[in-house]
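<tokenise_the_fold>
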Amino acid sequence: RDAGKRMAVLTNKPVRMSRHIVEGLGVGGHFFQVLGGDSLERKKPDPLGVETLLREARAERTRSIMVGDSSVDVATARNAGIACCGVTYGFQPESLADPAPDLLVDRMEQFADWVLK
């Protein structure tokens, strides 16, 4: 894992449940933060969650990407001024047509190829 790259979870689900899911999947160690819909005063598609995570990670907006499975995720990325990758598996992949993400993938390997270019 590259120390310069940091990942977080931003969801509209309640934070307590979201943290349990992340830990239950055994991937908690990959994320520096998990924010839920009740973590901040505004939910996605408001950019507050992304802006909070960017600040906490000391990340540059131009070097940040949101990965999501719905139009809400794409709108959140657009509202925050960051790139967005949509995944065709997940909660609402049919909604990814409008607004369209910068990249749409069927497998995360496709995302990795795009990022590493």
About this structure: The radius of gyration is 13 Å. Strands lie at 7-10, 31-35, 65-68, 83-87, 103-105. The helical segments are 15-24, 48-57, 71-80, 108-115.
